[in-house]
Amino acid sequence: MLLGADNPLALHALVRKYAEIAGAITHARSTVQKLTADLSHIEAAIRLLDASVDISVIRPSRPSFKRSQKGEVTNILLDVLREADQPLPPRTITERVMTRRGMCIENAVELDVMLKRVRACLRNQRNQGVLHPVGKDGFAQLWDVVQ
Question: Is there a contact between 143 and 131 (Cβ–Cβ < 8 Å)?
């Protein structure tokens, strides 16, 4: 018997996901190479202008608001709720979405913006029949996936 013959759809999905992740890794490596080359050129230009500048003291800055692709937040939100063992309030969902996207949950401005986006996604998914509110935790509405 062939491995995976009992579950051809699952096998196909896993092979497709493997190819997707492998492609993302290849793309990320080429991006890192390009950024490294760009950084080297900028460092050389800095040294041309002032050779006494100590490049090692320049601290990397973090980009602010990470832009998302269409549907990315919704997909992560749905994954978070599917993986949770109980219904979750919007703030917890927001923190988990931000963590998965590599965002800083300590940044109050980013957290507030993302919380508004998560609430909008929750309402939209409720209207589509994908999610439903299941009760409250204090003032916070708890959300779960429709079974």
Answer: yes
